[in-house]
Amino acid sequence: MKTILILGMAAALALAGCGSSPSTPTKPAPATTAKGGGYYLDDGPEANPPANLDAVADAVPRDEPLHRFANRPYVALGKPYTPKTERLAHREEGLASWYGKRFHGKKTASGEVYDMYAMTAAHPTLPLPSYARVTALDSGKSVVVRINDRGPFHGERVIDLSYIAAHKLGYLQRGSTRVRVESLDPTAYDTRGEALIEGVYLQVGAFSRADNAQQLLARLTHALELDPSSSRVVLNDKLHRVQLGPYPSDDAAHAARARVRERLDLDAVLVRRD
């Protein structure tokens, strides 16, 4: 029997996301308006956007090689930037803007074609490609995006989301909103939807929202003094499952289950991949 698991929790830079390249930046974008709602005055939605925008799934982190050229230091709007060349933990808060039809179909800084209906984003310094969870501070809604572009380079803005990602966070008409940006470790996910190795695990909870799963994982890690390699968020069937393990035997898993109950008053179930 097999239990389905996922282990959790272009040769030159072409800066499409902010409408410029690092070597030849354009002037700063004008302020947004309620009519357009985007980063630029004329960057509103298409006349007939797809009808199923709410059904678009979050990006799923994958362990991809970093782009050979898109992570080099550059200058935009007179300011130098030094992108990160390793996927290290990153957390920041600030304004998120979005970009849409003005750049739809054009190349991003990674050389990929920008799709306003894909769950992507632009960031000044996070590695390309990388993944991040973006949470709207006013509503608590969050999305997972793949960062494949550079920008924004304007005021307090820390990230530029695609049209669809901004739609899912609910700030299209406002043009921007305050968010928390948290990098995700792609090596913690197996996009096949199965456990990377065989074994027995404890599942402590399952959530539709990733941030709730991460909060529980943090509680477990602190209360049980867990090694980070023995805990994870499992993404399967749109649920974020908090799991511990693997354990060498059923007896070891049951002993861990008793500790979870004793220290946090939480029930856990055993899951297995044979």
TrEMBL record:
<keyword id="KW-0456">Lyase</keyword>
<feature type="signal peptide">
    <location>
        <begin position="1"/>
        <end position="16"/>
    </location>
</feature>
<feature type="compositionally biased region" description="Low complexity">
    <location>
        <begin position="18"/>
        <end position="34"/>
    </location>
</feature>
<dbReference type="GO" id="GO:0009279">
    <property type="term" value="C:cell outer membrane"/>
</dbReference>
<dbReference type="GO" id="GO:0005886">
    <property type="term" value="C:plasma membrane"/>
</dbReference>
<dbReference type="Pfam" id="PF05036">
    <property type="entry name" value="SPOR"/>
</dbReference>
<dbReference type="InterPro" id="IPR007730">
    <property type="entry name" value="SPOR-like_dom"/>
</dbReference>
<dbReference type="GO" id="GO:0042834">
    <property type="term" value="F:peptidoglycan binding"/>
</dbReference>
<protein>
    <recommendedName>
        <fullName>Endolytic peptidoglycan transglycosylase RlpA</fullName>
        <ecNumber>4.2.2.-</ecNumber>
    </recommendedName>
</protein>
<keyword id="KW-0564">Palmitate</keyword>
<keyword id="KW-1003">Cell membrane</keyword>
<keyword id="KW-0449">Lipoprotein</keyword>
<dbReference type="InterPro" id="IPR036908">
    <property type="entry name" value="RlpA-like_sf"/>
</dbReference>
<comment type="function">
    <text>Lytic transglycosylase with a strong preference for naked glycan strands that lack stem peptides.</text>
</comment>
<dbReference type="InterPro" id="IPR036680">
    <property type="entry name" value="SPOR-like_sf"/>
</dbReference>
<dbReference type="Pfam" id="PF03330">
    <property type="entry name" value="DPBB_1"/>
</dbReference>
<dbReference type="InterPro" id="IPR034718">
    <property type="entry name" value="RlpA"/>
</dbReference>
<feature type="region of interest" description="Disordered">
    <location>
        <begin position="18"/>
        <end position="45"/>
    </location>
</feature>
<feature type="domain" description="SPOR">
    <location>
        <begin position="194"/>
        <end position="273"/>
    </location>
</feature>
<dbReference type="InterPro" id="IPR009009">
    <property type="entry name" value="RlpA-like_DPBB"/>
</dbReference>
<dbReference type="GO" id="GO:0071555">
    <property type="term" value="P:cell wall organization"/>
</dbReference>
<dbReference type="GO" id="GO:0008932">
    <property type="term" value="F:lytic endotransglycosylase activity"/>
</dbReference>
<keyword id="KW-0472">Membrane</keyword>
<comment type="similarity">
    <text>Belongs to the RlpA family.</text>
</comment>
<keyword id="KW-0961">Cell wall biogenesis/degradation</keyword>
<dbReference type="GO" id="GO:0000270">
    <property type="term" value="P:peptidoglycan metabolic process"/>
</dbReference>
<keyword id="KW-0732">Signal</keyword>
<dbReference type="InterPro" id="IPR012997">
    <property type="entry name" value="RplA"/>
</dbReference>
